[in-house]
Design a protein that fits this description.
Layout: E1 11-24, E2 32-34, E3 40-47, E4 52-59, E5 62-68, E6 76-77, E7 82-87, E8 92-97, H1 101-138, H2 150-153, H3 157-168, H4 185-244, H5 247-361
Antiparallel strand pairs: 1-2, 1-3, 1-8, 3-4, 4-5, 6-7, 7-8
Helix pairs in contact: 1-4, 3-4
Length: about 350
């Protein structure tokens, strides 16, 4: 889609940022399709004539986003750096990928701000429409003509303003049962406000017609430029066909093709060598993997043997500790036996001494 250049003089950017632009795949409705190869400028525009806010992004001369903000739109943050919103008018979903979470949050705040402004503008427009329609319902005539007729659109500013006055004059004619217009200041003010509203609507239609006229002129200019470009290309093709009929050009072209073929063959050879090198690397990697698996298996076996040896060592330690305990107990028993034996020897010595004394006394 191309952005209308006729809107440039009415719209001004009020906030801009940079992001990668995506659109939802119209077929799957799930996958994101990038519409820009790199980050582009995404701007909020305000159209003072239509009192609307739009999100516009250009990739060169191509408009990849042209979305009018409405009160029922919602901007959703799906991640720390990605957000999306659905545009029912364009029948698509736009996605923006930002460089940081701060840029995403700022864009979301602006979206909410301009969405609220669009809601207030819509409410004011509805109030004006209600005020405009109320006198028509209260009027006894009931068959008043609207100023928004094709005749008022097709004329100039000077021609349309009298039409509004003429169309509004029947509204100023009350029925026989109503009070005279000249005797009611309130009704006079009311119809003056009605006339001012109609003039405002007529001015908007005039601006829209001028926009359409400018667009038509621009399209005609673009069409003429395309036709001139097509003629120039056709002439260029004819010249190339004439040149290609010459032998020298054919020979030169053939030489260039041969050189290109040689370059492609050399490139292919380099690629084949690279593929062969990659195959060797893959084979080496497989051998290393096999060695690694073998070493891993051996390591597992060593660990198993180590566990067995640790078990045996623990068993020996327990047996040694048991043997030491038994030896300690034997030593204790032997020491006790020696003490008893010493006591018995001492008693025998005393007994021998007593017996010797008895013998001496006798």
């Amino acid at each position: 889609m191309k952005l209308d250049s006729a809107f440039s003089y009415m719209e001004q950017p009020i906030f801009s940022t940079r992001a990668h632009v995506f659109q939802i795949d119209p077929n799957t409705k799930k996958n994101w399709v990038p519409t820009s190869k790199h980050a582009v400028t995404v701007s909020y525009f305000y159209d003072s004539t239509r009192n609307v806010y739009r999100i516009i992004s250009l990739d060169g001369s191509k408009a990849i986003i042209n979305s009018t903000i409405t009160p029922n739109m919602t901007f959703t943050k799906t991640s720390q750096k990605f957000g999306q919103w659905a545009d029912s008018r364009a029948n698509t979903v736009y996605g923006l990928g930002f460089s940081s979470e701060h840029h995403l949050s700022k864009f979301a705040e602006k979206f909410q701000e301009f969405k609220e402004a669009a809601r207030l503008a819509k409410e004011k427009s509805q109030e004006k429409m209600e005020l405009t329609s109320t006198p028509s319902q209260e009027s006894a005539g009931g068959d008043l003509q609207s100023p928004l007729t094709p005749e008022s659109i097709n004329g100039t500013d000077d021609e349309r303003t009298p039409d509004v006055t003429q169309n509004s004059e029947p509204r100023a004619e009350p029925t026989q049962n109503a009070l005279p217009f000249t005797h009611s200041a309130a009704i006079s003010k009311h119809w003056e406000a009605e006339l001012a509203t109609l003039k405002g609507n007529n001015a908007k239609l005039t601006a829209a017609l001028l926009e359409s006229t400018a667009n038509v002129k621009q399209w005609k200019q673009q069409l003429a430029a395309y036709q001139e470009e097509a003629e120039r290309l056709h002439k260029r093709v004819t010249e190339l066909e004439c040149v290609s009929s010459q032998a020298n050009a054919v020979h030169t072209h053939k030489t260039e093709l041969n050189q290109t073929i040689q370059e492609l063959e050399e490139t292919l050879k380099v690629k084949e060598e690279e593929i062969e090198r990659l195959k060797q690397e893959i084979d080496n990697a497989r051998e290393l993997q096999e060695q690694r698996d073998s070493l891993t298996q051996k390591l597992q076996e060593v660990e198993i043997r180590n566990k067995d040896l640790e078990g045996q060592l623990s068993d020996l330690e327990q047996r040694l500790e048991k043997s030491q305990n038994e030896q300690e107990a034997f030593r204790n028993n032997l020491k006790t036996l020696l003490e008893i034996l010493d006591g018995k020897i001492f008693e025998l010595t005393e007994l021998r001494d007593n017996l010797a004394k008895l013998l001496e006394c006798s």
